[in-house]
Design brief:
With about 90 residues, this protein is mainly alpha-helical. About 35% of the residues lie in helices and about 5% in strands. The chain has one domain: GMP Synthetase, Chain A, domain 3 (2-Layer Sandwich), CATH 3.30.300.30.
Length: about 90
């Protein structure tokens, strides 16, 4: 989640591209979501519970592509199986 500065027109790709070559590849965010403000607690810390609640249905773009795959239901059903082979 990113709050843009006033009059800023930065894009998701520009923001993610900024980190290329500066940090490890796995540190670069998979996606960027622009928000108007971030919720804070009474002490000024980020209110992670509110953020989790606000974005509980959020799906990464890479996961959205997989969900459109006809095999998704089979694959996810199989991966959640609790059956232990004998």
């Amino acid at each position: 989640m990113v709050v843009k500065r006033p009059n800023s027109d930065v894009t998701q790709d520009e923001l993610r591209g900024f980190y290329e070559g500066k940090v490890a590849k796995w540190w670069i965010p998979d996606d960027v979501v622009f928000v108007d403000e971030l919720p804070h607690t009474a002490t000024g810390k980020l209110h992670k519970l509110k953020l989790r609640e606000q974005f509980r249905h959020y799906i990464l773009p890479s996961a959205r592509k997989v969900q459109n795959c006809p095999l998704t239901d089979e694959v996810t059903a199989g991966s959640r199986s609790t059956h232990v082979p004998e």
